[in-house]
Amino acid sequence: MREWIDDFKSTVAEATGRLQQIDEAKSAESPAPGKWSTKEILGHLIDSAANNHSRFVLAQMRDDLVFPGYEQNKWVDIQNYRDEPWAAMIDLWQAYNVHIAHVMEVTPDDKLKHMCIQHTMHDIAWRSVSENTPVSLEHLMRDYVEHLKHHLDQIFSDD
Fold first, then answer.
1. Helix (H, G, I), strand (E, B) or coil at 134
2. Least enclosed by CB within 10 Å: which of 19, 81, 91, 116?
3. At 135, phi and psi to the nearest 5?
C-alpha cells in the first residue's frame, strides 16, 4: 500500500552511496555559468526537505494544504553551499530524508488520503495542480519524492 515510501527510502540509501563517491572539488564545479553545482543542487534538496518536513507535519493539524513557497535561488545563495563541506551536506541530506520517510510512514491513512479543496499546490508543487482540483497530503509527499529524484538524476547524469 505504501510501497512508494519504501522506494523513497531505497532511493535515499542508494543515492547516499553514490554522492559519497563524488569528491569535494567536483561537487563544487558548476556545469555552466548560472547553473547550480552539485553542492548547490544538494543544498536545494536540503532546503526542500526543510520546507516540506514542516508542510508534512502541519498538514496533519489542519484541513488544508495552504503553505507558502520559498525563493529557492535565494535560499541557495544565502547559505553559500559551495563553501559547505561536501561530506557534512551528504550526512544532513541523508538524515533529513530518513526522518521524512519516518514521518511519511507514521502518517495515519485518514490524514494521508484526506482530499483538500484549499491548497497552494499550483505554487509550491514540483508538478503543479490546478487550484480547482482537490489534492491530498499523499500527493504532496509523492511530489516531494519525484522532485528529489529529478534532482538526483541531474547530479548523476555526469556519472
1. coil
2. 91
3. -145, 155
Q: Is the pTM of this model over 0.90?
A: yes
Please give the backbone phi and psi of residue 63, each rounded to the nearest 5 degrees, phi first: -105, 10
Q: Which residues of 119-137 are buried (b: 16+ CB within 10 A; e: fewer)?
A: bbbeebbbeebeeeeebbb
C-alpha cell belonging to residue 76 = 541557495
Q: pLDDT 10s per residue in the chain (159 long)?
A: 689 999 999 999 999 999 999 999 999 999 889 899 999 999 999 999 999 999 999 999 999 999 999 999 999 999 999 999 999 999 999 999 999 999 999 999 999 999 999 999 999 999 989 999 999 999 999 999 999 999 999 999 965
Q: Give, to the nearest 10 degrees, the angle between helix 86-106 and helix 137-156.
A: 150
Closest CA to 65 of 111, 100, 102, 18: 111
Please report the beta strands in 5-53, taking only residues with DSSP state E, as ranges in sequence order. Answer: none
Cell numbers 491548497 correspond to 119
